[in-house]
C-alpha cells in the first residue's frame, strides 16, 4: 500500500488518508488537481470500510471547495486588542511570543494551575502527544482535557474498572461471527453508518442472528431490531442487573469461566438477586417477557457482541452503565472469542489515539494513570522533565466552571467549539468572558468560540494534516496531506511545539533535559519524529506498538494494537486466553447499585430531554454545515415530541414552543414523532447558536440546545449528563413571523449566513440554515432564514435582511403595510421556461410558505402566480406540490417519490428494497438511507389483491 495512487490523468493525483468524522476510521482516497481537492471516494483496501463512505464522508471534497475555504477558514493569526474588537492579522512570531508572554506571566502570578488547555478528539495522535507533553511536562499542570471527555471517558473508566485497562477487546470482523448483537445507547445507523452497513451484511448472511436494541427512542437502528427495549432514560444499570438475574436463574452463566478468570462475582450475585424481572420491568418501563427474551438471547444464543456509545457514556452513572454491561459478558464468558465482547464505538475520529497518549486530565502516556507515582516517574524520565505534577487536573466541565469563578485565568482551546458543545452554556460563556486570556487554535473562523478569542491561531484540517489516528477497533491509520496548508495555517503539533520552545525560555525551571541532554523538550521536525517518541512510551504496556512504524503503515496499511517489537501484525481480539491486565490476571465484576437519573422531572420540568446525532451532520457543523445538500434530510432545528403530547399541548407540526430547563431556555418548532415516548423529547445535538438563536423576554441570548443540558457528571469518569435533562415545554405566542429564502452563489451564501448571525438576536426565535443540492446546475446554494417575534421587526432590520437576501433592488416586486405588519418582497429571474422565483421575504403572514417556498426550491415556473405572490392570505391560482422530505441525499430522492414507487413493488422486504433501488437509485451509493428505506417499506406493505 503506497502513499499515492498512480496518477489518473495529467495533473491529477490520489492520496490515501482517513475520514475526519466518526470513530469508524474509514479510509478515503483524495483526488487533487492543481493543488485543489476535487473528489473523494472510499478506499477499497482499507479494512475499516472497504471502499464505503456515508453521506458525510462522501461529500468531504465539497467542504474543501475554494469558495468554502475562503469564507470559513481561519488563514492568518489574529489578535484582538480588547474584547469585542474585530481581530487584526498578525504574524506567527508575534502571535506565539504574545501567547507565551501572557501564559508565563499568569503562571508566575498565579501558578500553573491557573491555566487550562482544552483539546479535541479530532486532533491527530501526534498533535495530542505534543500537547500532553507541553502541558504536563513543561507548564506543570494536569489541566488538560478534551472534548473526548464528552464522548468516551465513561467507556474508558468502565473498561479499566472491569478489564484492567482501556482497551476495546473486539473488532469489526466480529460482526459477522456474532449470533446475537446487543446495541444499547447507540443509534449506529446514524452515528456509525458504515458499521451499520456491516451489520446489515452480517444479518443477510446469517438470518439466524438476533438484534436487540435498548434505547429510550425508537431510532432507525431500533426499527431494524428483532427485539426493541424502549427503556426509560437512565435505567440501563437496572436493565443489565435484571438480565443477569434471569441468566443466573436459568443457568445461562458460565461458572467455569467465572471461577477461572474473574473475581467479585459473589458480591454481584447478591446484588442482582433483588432485580427480579417484575421489578426491573417496572423500573425500565418494558414488558417483563421482553426482558427475559433479551437475557435468553444474550446468554443462550451466542456468541454475543455488545455495541454501545453515548447512551451509556453521557450520564452521571456512565461508568456504572459500562461496567454492568461488561458484567454480562464476563458472567457468560462472552469475551475474547470471535463474535463476542463488549465493544464501545468511539464517537470521534481519534478519541482513541488521544486516550493512547494520555491526553486527558487523569491520564498519562500509554495508558498510564496520573494517580500512580511510578507511572508519573516513568513519564517524567521519558520526557526529560523533573516531574509530572501529581495534583489531578480539571476535566472539561470542571475547567470551565473554574474559569467562570476566576480560578483559571487562561484558556487554550484547540480544534473544538465549547461555546456550542459543552453543557450549561451560560457557565461556559461566562468562563470565556471572565478569563484573562483565551486562545483559540482552529481551522474554521465561523465557530461560536472564535468570537471570545483574544488570539486566533490558524490550524490545518482534513486534506492538509499529516500523522496518524486510531479507530474504534484499535486500528492505527495514516492521515496524509493531499494539498499544502492554505494561507498561514500550521499543523497543530507544530504550533504546540513552537509554543513549547518559547515557554522553555520563559519557564526555565521546568526544562531539565537531563534524560536526553537536548536543548529543548520539543525537537520535532516531522509528525513521524513525534510518533516515534510516542511509540517508545508504549514499550511493555498493554498497547505496545514498538513493532510498528510509519514505514509499515505505508507499505502494509492500517494495523491494530498491540503490535510489540518482533510481531508481524497486531492483535484483532484481546483476552483470548482469559488473562487480563490486572495484578492477578483476573477481570473484576462491578457490583454497583442502580440509581435514578441525576435530574428527575418535576411539575415545572415534566419532560425528559434527550440529545443525539442527525444522520448527515457532524458535531457543531463547522464543516458539514457548509453544504446545503446535507440539510435535505433534516432541514431545520426542531424538538421531537410524541403525538400524544403534541395533542395535549395543543400543538400542530411546526408550532413554536419554549423549552426551559433549570439553566436556560430555547425557542424552536415542535414536530410529532412516534420514535419518542410520551413525556420525552429529543433535540439534535448539532443545533447551536450558529443555527438556532434569539433572545428571551429578559434580553438574554439563547444559545442552542446546550443552553438546556446538565453539567452534572459521572463521579468516576467526569463525563457530563448530556443525554438527559428535565425540561418544561409550552406553546409560545409569537404572532409576527418572517421567512426569507434565496438562491445565491456558494461563496455569497456562506458570507450571508455569517452576516445574518448578528440579526438573529433581534427576534424571540431565529434560525438560519442552508439548503440545496450539489452540484446545482447553476452553481447555486440556498439560504433559509426563519424568525418570530411578538411585534414586527423594525424597518431597518427588514432592510438589512432584504439586502442580504438580494430582494432589495428596483426589479424586486414588493408589498409593505406597516400598520398591519405585513411585508413581502419577491425577486424573479427570466429563464428559457419562463419566470422563476430566485428570492423572497415574507413577513407578518407567512402562510404562503406552503406554496411559495416550493416554487423557489423546486425552481418551478412562476408566471401564473402574479399578484398572489404579494397578497397576504392569497391562494395560489395553480396548485403547487412540494417534492417532500429528502430521504436519499446522494440522489435527492424524497419520501413521497419512494412511497409512490413502493406501490409498484412486490415481494419480500428485501425484494421490494431491491426494486426501489433499481428504479430510484436511492440507497445504492453510500447506503446511509437504507435503514429509513426499510422503515418505509415496513410502513407501506404490499396491498392485498
Automatic annotation (TrEMBL):
Keyword annotations from UniProtKB, A to Z: 4Fe-4S, Iron, Iron-sulfur, Metal-binding, Molybdenum, Nitrate assimilation, Oxidoreductase
Cofactor: Mo-bis(molybdopterin guanine dinucleotide); [4Fe-4S] cluster
Span of domain 4Fe-4S Mo/W bis-MGD-type: 12-68
SUPFAM superfamilies: ADC-like, Formate dehydrogenase/DMSO reductase, domains 1-3
GO CC annotation, single: membrane
Keyword 4Fe-4S appears in the UniProt entry: yes
Superkingdom of this protein's organism: Bacteria
PROSITE patterns reported in the protein's UniProt record: 4FE4S_MOW_BIS_MGD, MOLYBDOPTERIN_PROK_2
Segments passing through the bilayer: none
UniProt GO MF annotations: 4 iron, 4 sulfur cluster binding; metal ion binding; molybdopterin cofactor binding; oxidoreductase activity
GO biological process terms held by the UniProt record: cellular respiration; nitrate assimilation
Family: Belongs to the prokaryotic molybdopterin-containing oxidoreductase family. NasA/NapA/NarB subfamily.
The protein's name: Nitrate reductase
Organism of derivation: Aquabacterium soli
Lineage of origin: Bacteria, Pseudomonadati, Pseudomonadota, Betaproteobacteria, Burkholderiales
Amino acid at each position: 500500500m503506497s502513499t499515492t495512487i498512480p496518477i489518473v490523468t495529467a495533473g491529477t493525483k490520489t492520496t490515501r488518508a482517513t475520514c475526519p468524522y466518526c470513530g469508524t476510521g474509514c479510509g478515503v482516497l483524495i483526488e487533487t488537481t492543481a493543488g485543489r481537492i476535487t473528489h473523494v471516494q472510499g478506499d477499497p483496501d482499507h479494512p475499516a470500510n472497504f471502499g464505503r463512505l456515508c453521506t458525510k464522508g462522501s461529500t468531504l471534497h465539497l467542504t474543501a471547495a475554494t469558495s468554502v475555504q475562503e469564507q470559513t477558514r481561519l488563514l492568518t493569526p489574529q489578535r484582538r486588542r480588547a474584547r469585542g474588537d474585530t481581530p487584526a492579522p498578525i504574524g506567527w512570531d508575534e502571535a506565539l511570543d504574545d501567547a507565551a508572554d501572557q501564559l508565563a506571566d499568569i503562571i508566575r502570578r498565579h501558578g500553573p494551575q491557573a491555566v487550562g488547555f482544552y483539546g479535541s478528539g479530532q486532533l491527530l495522535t501526534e498533535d495530542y502527544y505534543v500537547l500532553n507533553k507541553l502541558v504536563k511536562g513543561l507548564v506543570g499542570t494536569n489541566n488538560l482535557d478534551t472534548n473526548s471527555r464528552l464522548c468516551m471517558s465513561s467507556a474508558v473508566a468502565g473498561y479499566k474498572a472491569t478489564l484492567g485497562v482501556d482497551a476495546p477487546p473486539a473488532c469489526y470482523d466480529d460482526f459477522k461471527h456474532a449470533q446475537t448483537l446487543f446495541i444499547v445507547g447507540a443509534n449506529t445507523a446514524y452515528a456509525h453508518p458504515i458499521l451499520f452497513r456491516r451489520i446489515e451484511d452480517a444479518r443477510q448472511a446469517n438470518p439466524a442472528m438476533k438484534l436487540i436494541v435498548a434505547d429510550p427512542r425508537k431510532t432507525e437502528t431500533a426499527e431494524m431490531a428483532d427485539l426493541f427495549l424502549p427503556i426509560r432514560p437512565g435505567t440501563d444499570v437496572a436493565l443489565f442487573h435484571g438480565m443477569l438475574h434471569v441468566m443466573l436463574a436459568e443457568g445461562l452463566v458460565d461458572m467455569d469461566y467465572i471461577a477461572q478468570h474473574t473475581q467479585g462475582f459473589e458480591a454481584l450475585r447478591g446484588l442482582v438477586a433483588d432485580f427480579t424481572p417484575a421489578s426491573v420491568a417496572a423500573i425500565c418501563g418494558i414488558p417483563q417477557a421482553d426482558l427475559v427474551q433479551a437475557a435468553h438471547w444474550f446468554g443462550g444464543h451466542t456468541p454475543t457482541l455488545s455495541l454501545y456509545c453515548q447512551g451509556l457514556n453521557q450520564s452521571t452513572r456512565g461508568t456504572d452503565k459500562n461496567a454492568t454491561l461488561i458484567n454480562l459478558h464476563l458472567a457468560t464468558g462472552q469475551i475474547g472469542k470471535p463474535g463476542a465482547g463488549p465493544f464501545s464505538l468511539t464517537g470521534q475520529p481519534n478519541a482513541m489515539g488521544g486516550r493512547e497518549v494520555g491526553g486527558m486530565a487523569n491520564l498519562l502516556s500509554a495508558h498510564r494513570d496520573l494517580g500512580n507515582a511510578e507511572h508519573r516517574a516513568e513519564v517524567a524520565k521519558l520526557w526529560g522533565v523533573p516531574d509530572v505534577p501529581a495534583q489531578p487536573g480539571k476535566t472539561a466541565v470542571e475547567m470551565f466552571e473554574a474559569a467562570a469563578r476566576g480560578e483559571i485565568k487562561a484558556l487554550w482551546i484547540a480544534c473544538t467549539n465549547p461555546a456550542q458543545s459543552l453543557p450549561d452554556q451560560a457557565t461556559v460563556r461566562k468562563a470565556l468572558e471572565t478569563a484573562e486570556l483565551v486562545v483559540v487554535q482552529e481551522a474554521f473562523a465561523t465557530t461560536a468560540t472564535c468570537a471570545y478569542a483574544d488570539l486566533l491561531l490558524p490550524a490545518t484540517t482534513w486534506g492538509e494534516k499529516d500523522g496518524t489516528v486510531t479507530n474504534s477497533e484499535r486500528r492505527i491509520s495514516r492521515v496524509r496531506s493531499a494539498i499544502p496548508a492554505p494561507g498561514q495555517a500550521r499543523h497543530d503539533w507544530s504550533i504546540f511545539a513552537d509554543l513549547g520552545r518559547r515557554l522553555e525560555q520563559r519557564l526555565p525551571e521546568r526544562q531539565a533535559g537531563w534524560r536526553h541532554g537536548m536543548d529543548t523538550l520539543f525537537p520535532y521536525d516531522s509528525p513521524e519524529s513525534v510518533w516515534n517518541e510516542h511509540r517508545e512510551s508504549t514499550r511493555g504496556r498493554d498497547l505496545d506498538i514498538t513493532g510498528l512504524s510509519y514505514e509499515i503503515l505505508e507499505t502494509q496499511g492500517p494495523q491494530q494494537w498491540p503490535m510489540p517489537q518482533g510481531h508481524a501484525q497486531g492483535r484483532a481480539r484481546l483476552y483470548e486466553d482469559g488473562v487480563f491486565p490486572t495484578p492477578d490476571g483476573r477481570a473484576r465484576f462491578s457490583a454497583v447499585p442502580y440509581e435514578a437519573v441525576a435530574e428527575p422531572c418535576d411539575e415545572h420540568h415534566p419532560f425528559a430531554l434527550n440529545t443525539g446525532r442527525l444522520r448527515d451532520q457532524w458535531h457543531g457543523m463547522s464543516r458539514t454545515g457548509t453544504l446545503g445538500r446535507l440539510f435535505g434530510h433534516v432541514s431545520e432545528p426542531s424538538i421531537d415530541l410524541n403525538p400524544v403530547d403534541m395533542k395535549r399541548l395543543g400543538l400542530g407540526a411546526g408550532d413554536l414552543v419554549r423549552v426551559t430547563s433549570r439553566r436556560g431556555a430555547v425557542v424552536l418548532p415542535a414536530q410529532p414523532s412516534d420514535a419518542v415516548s410520551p413525556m420525552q423529547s429529543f433535540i439534535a445535538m448539532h443545533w447551536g447558536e450558529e443555527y438556532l438563536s434569539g433572545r428571551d423576554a429578559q434580553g438574554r441570548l439563547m444559545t442552542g440546545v446546550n443552553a438546556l443540558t446538565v453539567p452534572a457528571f459521572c463521579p468516576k469518569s467526569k463525563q457530563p449528563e448530556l443525554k438527559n435533562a428535565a425540561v418544561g415545554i409550552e406553546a409560545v405566542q409569537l404572532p409576527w413571523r418572517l421567512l426569507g429564502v434565496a438562491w445565491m452563489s456558494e461563496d455569497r451564501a456562506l458570507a450571508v449566513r455569517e452576516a445574518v448571525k448578528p440579526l438573529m438576536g433581534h427576534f424571540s426565535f431565529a434560525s438560519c440554515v442552508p439548503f440545496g443540492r450539489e452540484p446545482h446546475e447553476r452553481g447555486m446554494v440556498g439560504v433559509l432564514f426563519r424568525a418570530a417575534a411578538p411585534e414586527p421587526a423594525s424597518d431597518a432590520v427588514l432592510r438589512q435582511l432584504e439586502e442580504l437576501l438580494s430582494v432589495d433592488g428596483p426589479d424586486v416586486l414588493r408589498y409593505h403595510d406597516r400598520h398591519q405588519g405585513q411585508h413581502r418582497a419577491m425577486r424573479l429571474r427570466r429563464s428559457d421556461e419562463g419566470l422563476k422565483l430566485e428570492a423572497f421575504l415574507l413577513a407578518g403572514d407567512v402562510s404562503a410558505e406552503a406554496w411559495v417556498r416550493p416554487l423557489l426550491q423546486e425552481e418551478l415556473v412562476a408566471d401564473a402566480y402574479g399578484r398572489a405572490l404579494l397578497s397576504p392570505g392569497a391562494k395560489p391560482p395553480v396548485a403547487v406540490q412540494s417534492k417532500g422530505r429528502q430521504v436519499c441525499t446522494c440522489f435527492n430522492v424524497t419520501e413521497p417519490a419512494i412511497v409512490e414507487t413502493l406501490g409498484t413493488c412486490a415481494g419480500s422486504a428485501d425484494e421490494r428494497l431491491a426494486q426501489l433501488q433499481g428504479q430510484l437509485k436511492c440507497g445504492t451509493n453510500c447506503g446511509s438511507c437504507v435503514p429509513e428505506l426499510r422503515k418505509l417499506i415496513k410502513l407501506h406493505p404490499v396491498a392485498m389483491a
